[in-house]
Design a protein that fits this description.
Layout (H helix, E strand, L loop, with lengths): L4 H9 L1 H9 L2 H7 L4 H19 L13 H5 L13 H13 L2 H17 L1 H14 L9 H5 L2 H13 L7 E4 L5 E3 L2 E3 L4 E4 L1 H5 L21 H4 L16 H18 E5 L8 E5 L1 E5 L5 E5 L3
Helix pairs in contact: 1-2, 3-4, 4-6, 7-8, 7-10, 7-13
């Protein structure tokens, strides 16, 4: 997916180019666009999976787990009309499930880790809170317990705010009757978009917005800031996986920070730089760290 990112810019601005790459034979597609070869290979594998399962549903019993997304999508009892989706619909679902969420959550974890490791005071406070809430390594806390930890929550919210996530504005078509946005009338049929990054970096909302500051989520006006944390968008088209993403962030930050001593590696970047290719494409070296398990 990372290798395919630069090509997505061409997809966004040239539908003919996207259709040519997506719909031409896989062998030819790999030649025309080598960057998307891995993506094409994955698509062929997903299509083969779906064909095997829809041609012979008995193959569901051969899967390594008794409950997978395919079990759910191919169960007629999960649908009011008792009809399962056709193979093309299943293919679109499988792609969405493969690509929706892992990169954005991973980017947030990487961003937060970078700031935690380059800010010793933040790392110290986070470790102290986790050690108090989780004194025995052999008895990990529940997700509910982790969600109640104020400093961990502040670290996660600040990591989300600083992470570009889906960087590009997400396009929406204004309804035929038009709409008034920020006091300006926008005619129906107009395409509008807003990037969460612009909201999260606004100095009018977040004072000293370029600084990683978990404390901003612990102050007296912290609750008023929550409505401006819009990584998952808002409204009926907001991200479906936000509960899963929050759980992943709590569990990963907590388990890594509590179970290990982590130290940034010297070859890591001094600052995080990226460019907009829908998702962020990072420029320069990757973040690296030395990790040592703790014993108590």
């Amino acid at each position: 997916m990372d290798a395919s990112l630069p090509v997505f810019v061409r997809f966004k601005h040239a539908a003919w180019y996207k259709n040519m790459i997506i719909h031409c034979p896989p062998k030819l597609s790999r030649i025309i666009s080598p960057e998307t070869a891995g993506l094409v290979d994955l698509q062929q594998e997903l299509k083969a999976q779906i064909t095997a399962l829809t041609d012979d549903p008995a193959n569901l019993k051969k899967l390594p787990h008794s409950t997978t997304i395919y079990h759910q999508l191919l169960d007629p009892n999960n649908y009011r009309d008792k009809h399962v989706p056709d193979p093309d619909s299943l293919y679109e679902e499988s792609q969405a499930l493969m690509f929706g969420g892992p990169d954005t959550t991973g980017t947030t974890l990487m961003h937060g880790t970078f700031y935690i490791l380059t800010m010793p005071e933040v790392y110290k406070k986070l470790k102290k809170e986790l050690q108090q809430a989780w004194p025995n390594l052999e008895k990990p806390p529940t997700l509910d317990t982790l969600e109640a930890l104020p400093y961990l929550t502040g670290v996660i919210k600040e990591s989300m705010r600083m992470s570009p996530g889906v960087f590009s504005p997400l396009p929406r078509v204004v309804p035929p009757v038009g709409a008034t946005l920020a006091g300006e009338f926008v005619p129906g049929g107009s395409v509008v978009g807003m990037s969460s990054h612009f909201v999260h970096s606004s100095e009018e909302i977040f004072e000293n917005s370029n600084a990683f500051d978990p404390e901003r989520w612990l102050g007296s006006n912290a609750q008023s800031l929550d409505k401006w944390l819009v990584n998952f968008s808002r409204g009926p088209r907001m991200c479906l996986g936000f509960n899963l993403a929050w759980a992943e962030l709590y569990l990963t930050f907590a388990y890594v920070s509590r179970s290990f001593e982590v130290e940034i590696e010297s070859s890591s970047p001094k600052e995080l730089k990226w460019r907009d290719v829908f998702l962020p494409e990072y420029i320069g070296p990757h973040l690296k760290a030395n990790v040592t398990p703790v014993t108590s």
